[in-house]
Amino acid sequence: MSLLFQGWVSVAVWMAVGLLLEGLIGYKAPAYLDDPQRRELFRLAHAHGTLLGAVLIVAALSASKFAPPRAAVLALRVGSVMMPVGFLLAGVWHPEGDPGLGIWLVPPGALLMIFGAAAMAFSARNKT
Amino acid sequence: MTQEARPATVQGDFTRDNTFDYLGVRARMERRGDRFTMTLTFAEGRQQVFTIDRTVGSRRIEQYLSQQDGQYVRLPLAYDLVNRRWMSLNGSFFYPDGDNYFQHQTQWDANCVFCHNVKAQPHLDARTRRFATEVTELGIACGACHGAAAKHAEQASSPFTREWWRLTDARDKQIVHPEKLTSERSLMVCGHCHGQRVPQPMDRIQEILTKGDPYNAGDDLAHFYTPVGRETKIGEFSFAARFWNNGAPRLTAYEYQGVLRSPCFIKGEHGNRINCLSCHSMHAGDVRGQIKPENRTDKPCLACHQQYQPPAKLAAHTRHGADSIGSRCYNCHMPRVVYGIMSFHPTHEISVPDPQLTASQSVPNACNQCHLDKSVNWAIAASQRFWPRRFAAAAPSQDEIFNLPEGPRALFMGDALTRAMAADAMGGGGPMKVDPHWVAPYLLEAFSDNYPIVRFFAAQGLANYNRSLLKPDYLAAPGARQMALAQWWASYAASRPQTVSLADKLRARRINVDIEVGE
After folding, report:
1. Taking 80 as the threshold, does the pLDDT of residue B397 lie above it?
2. Which residues contact B244 (CB under 8 A, 6 or more apart)?
3. Domain boundary among B74, B92, B114
4. Residues A99 and A90 sit within 8 Å (Cβ to Cβ)
5. In the predicted structure, residue B107 carries a pLDDT above the cut 90
6. A22 touches chain B (CB under 8 A)
7. CB within 8 Å: B159 and A96
8. What is the domain range of residue B166?
C-alpha cells in the first residue's frame, strides 16, 4: 500500500467518522451527548485522523522531491494510525474522569509522528 | 449545597418577581452588579438591608446566609425553586400562623454548617461566644463521603498511578470508598448527616463547636454520636414530635434511624446488610434522590426477595394486579410518610404495613395512603382477609371515627404533619390519583388550616386538579386567602355544607403538635 494511498484512505475514513459524529449530534444520541469525555476523545480521533492523513499525502508528494528514509515513512504510517485509533478506543469505554486504556496508544503514536516529521525534515535539508 | 452568592450560583428571582409581602413586612430582593441584597420594609417604615453572602440548597429551596458582624445568619425568606416563588421559612416548618417574622432566622455557624459543608470547624470562642468558622470544602463535596483525601489526590495526579490502581484494583488508595466498607460502616457515612444525632458523650459538644466534627468517613459513628430517637431529650427539649408514636421517623434527615429499624437491616448478615448504596448512587442517576432509574422500580427489593419476580407470585403476595401501583414494593413497604423540604418522601423504615397502628397509635398506614376513600377499619378487614396468617388477631377499632374515609379523617383530625401528609396524598402527590370532585372540597376546607404548611399541600393539590382557577397563596394574608377560597368554593358549592360539617366534627378531636423540622 503506497503512502499516498494510505493518506487518502485515512482522510476518507476519518472524514466519514466526522460525518458519523454529526449524525450522533443530529439524532441527539445520549451515549455521545451525555458523555463529555467521550465527545472530546471522538472529536480528537476525527481531527487527528483527518489531519494526519493529510500529513501522509504531503509526505508522499514530498517523496518526488527527495528520497525519504524508510524509518521515517514507517513511523509516519504507524503513528498516523495509532493516534486517532487510540483516541477513538479511549472514548468507546473509559472510567469516570479519565480516558480508556486506548489512550496509551496516543503518546507512542505522537512520538512516531514527531520522529517521522523530524527525519523528513533532515532528509529534505540534506537533499537541498 | 452551600455556595458563595454569585450571579452564577444564585437561582432566586432577584430582578422580576422580586417582592414578597408577609406579616405586614415588604421584602424586596435585588441584584446590584454582582451583589445580592434583601431589603425588609416594616409597617412603621423602618428598613433593614441584608447582604446575601452565601446560599444553601440548590434543588428544592434556596436559603440565604448573611454575614452579620462576622457571623453567618440564615435569613427568614427563601426561594422555592420548584414553585418559582419567594416564601417565608415559617411556611416550611410545622408551626401555626404567628406574628414572628424572624421565627426561623438562625445562626449558620452553630448548626447547618456541619452537614452542609465538609469538616466544619466553628472555632467557637467560649468567652465571646463568637464563631470564626472554617470549612475544608464549602458545600457537600468529596470529603463528606470519601474522608480526608489530600494524599490520595497527590498520588492520583499521575496518570500512571491512576491506571495502576484501576488495573490492580489497588486497596491502598489513601481514601475511603463507601462501597468497599462493611455495610454498617457504609451506612454510617450517610447516617452521619442523614441521621440526626447527639454527641456521645453529650459534653463532646464543646469539642465539636470549637475544633469541629471529629467524625471522618469510615469511622465508627457510634464512637462519637448517638442517633436521636423518640425518647431523646436535650434538657427540656424533646425530639418525640419528630417521630411517629411507634418510633418511626417522620422527618427527613432521620433516614439512618429508619434503616436501622428495618427488618431488612436487622435480619441481614453482619457486614453485608442493606445500606444506602443498595438503592442510591452518588455518581449516577437523578440528582433528586440520587437514585438510578432502574432502582425506582422493584429491582433493589428483588435482589433479595427473588421469589416475587414472577408476576403471578407477586400478585399473590400483594393481592393487587402485578402491574398496578399496589404491587410496587415501595408503595406498601416504604410509604410516603416522611416530610422534608416542602414534600413527602418514602420512609426508610422498610416494614410490613399494618393499618391497626393507625387506630391504636396514629401511625399512618400504607393501605390508606392509596385507599384514601376507604376507612382504617376497612383496611384492617382487608389485611385480615388477604394475609390471614400475619393478621389473624387483627381487630377493627371500636372508635367509629375509624369507619370514616381515612383521607378526610387524617386531613382534619391528625396533627399538623399528618394533615399535611393527607393533603399531599389527596392532592395527588402520592401514587394514587383520586377523583378530583370528591377530593377538592376537602382540600378547600383544609386550606383554612392554621398551619401554613398544611395550606401549602392543599393548594398544591387544588392546582393539580383544577388549573382553570388561580392557585391560592398559602402565605397570603387571611383576607386574601378567604377571597381566593370564595372563588374556588363557587365551583364546589353543593359539597360545602357536608364537607364543613365533617371537618368540624373531626377537628374537635385534633391534637396540635409543633414540630421544628431538623433540615
Report:
1. yes
2. B250, B337, B361, B362, B363, B364
3. B114
4. yes
5. no
6. no
7. no
8. 144-294
Is B94 contained in some domain?
A: yes
The C-alpha angle with vertex B233 and arms to B229 and B234, in degrees rounded to 5, equals 130
> pTM (2 decimals)?
0.84
The domain ranges of chain A are 3-127
DSSP string spanning B343-369? SEEE-S------THHHHHH----HHHH
From residue B11, give the alpha-carbon distance in Å to each of B64, B82, B90, B253, B488.
Answer: 11, 11, 21, 24, 32
ipTM of the complex model: 0.71
A chain contacts of residue B283, beta-carbon cutoff 8 Å:
96
- 3-state SS assignment for residue B69: coil
Asked if B148 and B200 sit in the same domain, the reply is yes
Q: Which helix (H) or strand (E) holds B85?
A: strand B85-88
Residue B308 lies in a domain: no
Q: Looking at the complex, does the CB of residue A128 fall below 8 Å from at least one CB of chain B?
A: no
Query: Does residue A128 have a pLDDT over 70?
Result: no
Cα B353 to its chain centre, rounded Å, is 21
Name the residue of chain A whose CA is nearest to B157's CA.
Answer: A98
Between chains, do B166 and A95 touch, taking CB under 8 Å as contact?
A: yes
Nearest by Cα to B189 from B154, B142, B231, B249: B142
The residues near B149 (Cβ < 8 Å, ≥ 6 apart) are B142, B143, B174, B175
Residues 6+ apart with CB under 8 A from B203: none
Report the b/e string of B216-248 with b at 16+ CB within 10 A. Answer: ebbbebeebbebbbbebeeeeeebbbbbbeeeb
Count of beta carbons in the 10 Å neighbourhood of residue B449? 24
Phi, psi of B161 (to 5 degrees): -65, -45
Write out the three cell numbers for B32.
446590584
Record the cell numbers describing residue B50, joined without a space.
Answer: 441584608
Most B-contacting residue of A34, A35, A37, A98 (CB-CB within 10 A), to test interface: A98
- What's the rounded Cα separation, in Å, for the pair B108 and B111? 6
User: Between B406-413 and B496-507, two packed helices, what is the crossing angle to 10 degrees?
Assistant: 60
**Total domains, chain B:** 3
- Is the confidence at residue B517, as pLDDT, over 70? no
Q: Decide if B131 is inside a domain.
A: no
Q: In what order do the strands lie in the sheet with B25-32?
A: B19-22, B25-32, B35-41, B47-52
Mean pLDDT of B353-374: 95
Interface contacts (A, B; CB < 8 Å): 7
Distance from CA of B54 to the nearest CA of A (A): 29
Contact B148/B236 with Cβ under 8 angstroms? Answer: no
B326 lies in a domain?
A: no
Chain B residues touching A95 at Cβ < 8 A: 166
For residues B182 and B313, what is the distance between their CA atoms, to the nearest angstrom? 33
Instruction: Give the 3-state secondary structure of residue B56.
Output: strand
Q: Tell me if B457 sits within 8 A of B423, measured CB to CB.
A: yes
